[in-house]
């Protein structure tokens, strides 16, 4: 299925101003800069969501590896489990984007409470189908 | 601000808003009424009956569902179809339509309203057309405003392109599918606009309903990803796109796999891979933009951009590899036939043989859409003007659906909604421009405020100029429509005056013209609906010399005969077109039907029909065929008969047995398809020819037997039948039923047995004639 998925993580658009002042830094240091910027600029709420995202991704990768290496026998069960992690992942990532203060301008009509309610409804519908598909 | 005509000034804005919403509701009620009423021609002119072919199966399945419950229906194995194979109905059907009727049936019965299931089935499509009008209204409101929405709702309510598939009695998947299509698109647009996962989830739920209802769901499966991809390529990626698309895809794909007929296709076939690819791409892009918001290093950003592109290429490569390895099924023939219109005829004649799969003839665009087809491009141009995300959607939809509608008549149905939407946008822009009372400001010469001041000399001149170039009445400066820009550009060079519409009469001319076109549209729609699209095709209508209607009811006569005079388990062979009707109306076992899942089985029937009797007989006996049913229109001039379909039987049979059946043998040496005395030997010996023209010339008492469909003289000495005997022929000879004889008790082959019998005692083998000749 989706080999691309394994690289995907959560996101946030609203590209902030690319300040060109920084000198051309070697790659490892820019990774550490990324990590530093992330830990400093992200609120603990978003970090909590990110932790959940990482867990979901690990769970999804685990299922995928199991499917490739061992068996995909009850294929519907695998699909249900895998879709459950993928679906929950994107719903959570959506929630993260909606509550990210950087995206405030994009989601004018979606308040934080509304975003969470959407998330809950989406998850319930998703897991209804997952449960039905487990077989 | 000057106005062209007096406007009341003492009305509060709340009153205006309230009145407007009341008017909207009233208008909407009227639109629903018109949409439902115009679909009832079929019931009024004929009766409350299920139409055509596929609806008969849907009706039969719905009856099972209503009588035995959903689980029985789900596990229904139908041994009477595709004899001797049978058909697993529960797993090979889109159950949405039947489930909808079943729910309505149970709902009504719960409230002690004993409505017959047949009436629910007959009236389901008109009912849903009102819902389609509502969904189109919502969709168009997102594009422009609610007045455009009302226009679009009115258009979709009565446009023949949609009525053709949704008249009362046309109980087919499309009846509910167009509503689902529009509501899914509306919810998708709404989700995209708001960035709301709730609307994405709702879109997924309706997508699920659509998947359960119609095979055309693949259109949505590809439209939404294409829209997302185009937005991505236009540099319009936003978190809202991510939220809307991902919530739709994740839930929608999983839910679509719940339908047994679809099964694992969404992860296994090429048709669904585009959606998956865009899903993956969005994850990468979203991740990249998150990372970018945290670091500012130029080098790192370049690296990011490169890695995103590499990922995309790798993904596409993986897709190709997986297709070659067979993990993903390649495109199906139906898909190829969309790109290469000759493909189906060459490789899958069974698809090409269906009349609704033929390319569209251009008059049918006018017939189905009338003035909308002219407004359609204008509306698409309007969408370019403020090109918001949802306008991109309409543009893509317009392009894709136009192409598909040109390839296949049937796909006119998917074009119709977008034509209605964009025509409504165009027309409502026109009306907005010309209803708007504000006059353009003129700096030097003051125009009077009261609009009826057309007596003013200067003003009359101006208005006259505008009227003179009627089409070119220049648009209001405020709302410069694209068309009028073009026109006024040519004429405003002379006068350096400000552009605008002056006076009430100029407006009146345009508005009356527009209203006149709409009135003609309504007349056209009513006429087409009542004349062309309301025939059940099970019952035919013709006019008597005095103008009254004459009903030709041969089909039901024949099916009723079968039901009354043959054993319950009798096997009836016919061409696949009539399989569902025989099963639905006569309740007899059929060899092939309109499901067409097994090409070989259909080819077997085709071979039996196109072979000589001696060859066909073993085939018939092996399949336990008791009766053979053919449709013959030669007496009445009914052109949809089996002789006209015969070449497709030959082609399909040739696809499986190229050594035994060859198409050229059925033509005359000059390459003509004839049935008279110049018909080829193979043609005259074929079972189909014999069954169609058996004893046909006797009807004319030895005179000139004329086939009125093909306008050819049938030879005086008609074909003889040894292995079959005539069992029943309907009033107008449209349906002819033959009984297959059992083997001769003495072990002779039937031909010699017949010859022997005839040598001794003439006419013994012939059945008693029990038909009346109608000339």
UniProtKB/TrEMBL annotation, chain A:
<comment type="subunit">
    <text>Component of the oligosaccharyltransferase (OST) complex.</text>
</comment>
<keyword id="KW-0812">Transmembrane</keyword>
<feature type="transmembrane region" description="Helical">
    <location>
        <begin position="48"/>
        <end position="71"/>
    </location>
</feature>
<feature type="compositionally biased region" description="Low complexity">
    <location>
        <begin position="1"/>
        <end position="23"/>
    </location>
</feature>
<comment type="function">
    <text>Subunit of the oligosaccharyl transferase (OST) complex that catalyzes the initial transfer of a defined glycan (Glc(3)Man(9)GlcNAc(2) in eukaryotes) from the lipid carrier dolichol-pyrophosphate to an asparagine residue within an Asn-X-Ser/Thr consensus motif in nascent polypeptide chains, the first step in protein N-glycosylation. N-glycosylation occurs cotranslationally and the complex associates with the Sec61 complex at the channel-forming translocon complex that mediates protein translocation across the endoplasmic reticulum (ER). All subunits are required for a maximal enzyme activity.</text>
</comment>
<protein>
    <recommendedName>
        <fullName>Dolichyl-diphosphooligosaccharide--protein glycosyltransferase subunit OST2</fullName>
    </recommendedName>
</protein>
<feature type="transmembrane region" description="Helical">
    <location>
        <begin position="115"/>
        <end position="134"/>
    </location>
</feature>
<keyword id="KW-1133">Transmembrane helix</keyword>
<comment type="similarity">
    <text>Belongs to the DAD/OST2 family.</text>
</comment>
<comment type="pathway">
    <text>Protein modification; protein glycosylation.</text>
</comment>
<dbReference type="GO" id="GO:0008250">
    <property type="term" value="C:oligosaccharyltransferase complex"/>
</dbReference>
<feature type="region of interest" description="Disordered">
    <location>
        <begin position="1"/>
        <end position="26"/>
    </location>
</feature>
<dbReference type="GO" id="GO:0006487">
    <property type="term" value="P:protein N-linked glycosylation"/>
</dbReference>
<dbReference type="Pfam" id="PF02109">
    <property type="entry name" value="DAD"/>
</dbReference>
<keyword id="KW-0256">Endoplasmic reticulum</keyword>
<dbReference type="InterPro" id="IPR003038">
    <property type="entry name" value="DAD/Ost2"/>
</dbReference>
<keyword id="KW-0472">Membrane</keyword>
TrEMBL record, chain B:
<comment type="function">
    <text>Catalytic subunit of the oligosaccharyl transferase (OST) complex that catalyzes the initial transfer of a defined glycan (Glc(3)Man(9)GlcNAc(2) in eukaryotes) from the lipid carrier dolichol-pyrophosphate to an asparagine residue within an Asn-X-Ser/Thr consensus motif in nascent polypeptide chains, the first step in protein N-glycosylation. N-glycosylation occurs cotranslationally and the complex associates with the Sec61 complex at the channel-forming translocon complex that mediates protein translocation across the endoplasmic reticulum (ER).</text>
</comment>
<feature type="transmembrane region" description="Helical">
    <location>
        <begin position="175"/>
        <end position="191"/>
    </location>
</feature>
<keyword id="KW-0808">Transferase</keyword>
<feature type="domain" description="Oligosaccharyl transferase STT3 N-terminal">
    <location>
        <begin position="23"/>
        <end position="423"/>
    </location>
</feature>
<dbReference type="InterPro" id="IPR048307">
    <property type="entry name" value="STT3_N"/>
</dbReference>
<feature type="transmembrane region" description="Helical">
    <location>
        <begin position="120"/>
        <end position="140"/>
    </location>
</feature>
<dbReference type="Pfam" id="PF02516">
    <property type="entry name" value="STT3"/>
</dbReference>
<keyword id="KW-0256">Endoplasmic reticulum</keyword>
<feature type="region of interest" description="Disordered">
    <location>
        <begin position="439"/>
        <end position="460"/>
    </location>
</feature>
<feature type="transmembrane region" description="Helical">
    <location>
        <begin position="365"/>
        <end position="384"/>
    </location>
</feature>
<feature type="transmembrane region" description="Helical">
    <location>
        <begin position="21"/>
        <end position="44"/>
    </location>
</feature>
<dbReference type="InterPro" id="IPR048999">
    <property type="entry name" value="STT3-PglB_core"/>
</dbReference>
<feature type="transmembrane region" description="Helical">
    <location>
        <begin position="273"/>
        <end position="291"/>
    </location>
</feature>
<feature type="transmembrane region" description="Helical">
    <location>
        <begin position="303"/>
        <end position="324"/>
    </location>
</feature>
<dbReference type="GO" id="GO:0018279">
    <property type="term" value="P:protein N-linked glycosylation via asparagine"/>
</dbReference>
<protein>
    <recommendedName>
        <fullName>Dolichyl-diphosphooligosaccharide--protein glycosyltransferase subunit STT3</fullName>
        <ecNumber>2.4.99.18</ecNumber>
    </recommendedName>
</protein>
<comment type="pathway">
    <text>Protein modification; protein glycosylation.</text>
</comment>
<dbReference type="InterPro" id="IPR003674">
    <property type="entry name" value="Oligo_trans_STT3"/>
</dbReference>
<keyword id="KW-0472">Membrane</keyword>
<feature type="compositionally biased region" description="Basic residues">
    <location>
        <begin position="759"/>
        <end position="775"/>
    </location>
</feature>
<dbReference type="GO" id="GO:0046872">
    <property type="term" value="F:metal ion binding"/>
</dbReference>
<feature type="domain" description="STT3/PglB/AglB core">
    <location>
        <begin position="569"/>
        <end position="620"/>
    </location>
</feature>
């Amino acid at each position: 299925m989706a080999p691309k998925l394994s690289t995907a993580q959560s996101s946030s658009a609203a590209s902030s101003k690319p300040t060109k002042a920084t000198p051309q830094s070697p790659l490892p240091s820019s990774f550490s800069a990324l990590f530093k910027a992330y830990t400093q600029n992200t609120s603990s709420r978003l970090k909590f969501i990110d932790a959940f995202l990482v867990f979901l991704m690990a769970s999804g990768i685990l299922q995928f590896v199991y499917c490739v290496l061992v068996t995909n026998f009850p294929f519907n069960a695998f699909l249900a489990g895998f879709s459950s992690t993928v679906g929950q992942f994107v719903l959570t990532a959506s929630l993260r984007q909606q509550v990210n203060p950087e995206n405030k301008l994009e989601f004018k009509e979606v308040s934080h409470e509304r975003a969470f309610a959407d998330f809950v409804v989406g998850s319930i519908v998703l897991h209804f189908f997952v449960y039905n598909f487990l077989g | 601000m000057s106005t062209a005509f007096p406007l009341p000034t003492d009305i509060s804005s709340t009153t205006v808003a309230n009145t407007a919403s009341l008017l909207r509701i009233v208008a909407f009620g009227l639109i629903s009424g018109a949409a439902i009423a115009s679909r009832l021609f079929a019931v009024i002119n004929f009766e409350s009956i299920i139409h055509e072919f596929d609806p008969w199966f849907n009706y039969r399945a719905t009856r099972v569902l209503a009588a035995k419950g959903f689980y029985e229906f789900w596990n229904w194995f139908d041994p009477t179809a595709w004899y001797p194979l049978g058909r697993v109905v529960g797993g090979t059907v889109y159950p949405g339509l039947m489930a909808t009727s079943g729910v309505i049936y149970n709902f009504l019965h719960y409230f002690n309203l004993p409505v017959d299931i047949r009436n629910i089935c007959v009236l389901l499509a008109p009912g849903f057309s009102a819902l389609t009008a509502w969904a189109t209204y919502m969709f168009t409101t997102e594009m422009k405003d609610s007045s455009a929405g009302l226009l679009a709702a009115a258009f979709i309510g009565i446009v023949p392109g949609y009525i053709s598939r949704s008249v009362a009695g046309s109980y087919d998947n499309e009846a509910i599918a167009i509503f689902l299509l529009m509501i899914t698109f509306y919810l998708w647009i709404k989700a995209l606009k708001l960035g709301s996962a709730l609307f994405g989830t709702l879109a997924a739920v309706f997508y699920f309903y659509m998947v359960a209802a119609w095979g055309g769901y693949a259109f949505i499966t590809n439209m939404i990803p294409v829209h997302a991809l185009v937005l991505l390529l236009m540099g319009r990626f936003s978190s809202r796109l991510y939220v809307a698309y991902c919530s739709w895809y994740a839930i929608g794909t999983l839910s679509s796999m719940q339908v047994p007929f679809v099964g694992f296709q969404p992860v296994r076939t090429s048709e669904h891979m585009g959606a998956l690819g865009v899903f993956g791409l969005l994850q990468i892009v979203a991740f990249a933009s998150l990372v970018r918001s945290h670091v500012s290093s130029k080098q790192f950003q370049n690296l990011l951009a490169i890695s995103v592109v590499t990922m995309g290429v790798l993904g596409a490569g993986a897709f190709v590899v997986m297709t070659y390895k067979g993990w993903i099924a390649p495109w199906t023939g139906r898909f190829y036939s969309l790109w290469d219109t000759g493909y189906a005829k060459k490789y899958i004649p069974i698809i090409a043989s269906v009349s609704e799969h033929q390319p569209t003839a251009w008059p049918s665009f006018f017939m189905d859409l009338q003035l909308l087809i002219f407004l359609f491009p204008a509306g698409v141009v309007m969408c370019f003007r403020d090109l918001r995300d949802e306008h991109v959607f309409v543009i893509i939809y317009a392009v894709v659906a136009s192409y598909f509608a040109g390839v296949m008549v049937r796909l006119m149905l998917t074009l119709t909604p977008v034509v209605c939407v964009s025509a409504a946008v165009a027309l409502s822009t026109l009306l907005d421009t010309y209803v708007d009372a504000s006059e353009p400001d003129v700096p030097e010469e003051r125009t009077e405020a009261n609009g009826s001041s057309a007596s003013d000399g200067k003003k009359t001149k101006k208005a006259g100029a505008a009227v003179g170039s009627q089409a070119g009445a220049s648009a209001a400066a405020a709302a410069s429509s694209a068309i009028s820009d073009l026109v006024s550009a040519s004429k405003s060079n002379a006068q350096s005056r400000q552009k605008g519409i002056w006076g009430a009469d100029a407006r009146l001319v345009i508005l009356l013209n527009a209203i006149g076109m709409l009135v003609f549209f309504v007349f056209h729609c009513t006429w087409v609906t009542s004349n062309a699209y309301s025939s059940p095709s099970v019952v035919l209508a013709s006019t008597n010399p005095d103008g009254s209607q004459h009903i030709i009811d041969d089909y039901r006569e024949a099916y009723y005969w079968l039901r009354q005079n043959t054993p319950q388990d009798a096997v009836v062979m016919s061409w696949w077109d009539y399989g569902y009707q025989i099963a639905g109306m006569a309740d007899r076992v059929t060899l092939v039907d309109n499901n067409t899942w097994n090409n070989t089985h259909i080819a077997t029937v085709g071979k039996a029909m196109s072979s000589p009797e001696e060859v066909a007989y073993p085939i018939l006996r092996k399949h336990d065929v008791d009766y053979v049913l053919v449709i013959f229109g030669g007496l009445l001039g009914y052109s949809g008969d089996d002789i006209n379909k015969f070449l497709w039987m030959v082609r399909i049979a040739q696809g499986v047995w190229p050594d035994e059946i060859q198409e050229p043998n059925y033509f005359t040496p000059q390459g003509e398809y004839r049935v008279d005395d110049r018909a080829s030997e193979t043609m005259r010996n074929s079972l189909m020819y014999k069954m169609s023209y058996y004893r046909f010339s006797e009807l004319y008492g030895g005179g000139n037997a004329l086939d009125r469909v093909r306008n050819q003289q049938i030879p005086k000495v008609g074909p003889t039948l040894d292995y079959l005997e005539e069992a029943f022929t309907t009033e107008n000879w449209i349906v002819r039923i033959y009984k297959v004889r059992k083997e001769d008790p003495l072990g002779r082959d039937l031909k010699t047995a017949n010859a022997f019998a005839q040598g001794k005692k003439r006419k013994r083998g012939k059945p008693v004639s029990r038909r009346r000749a109608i000339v």
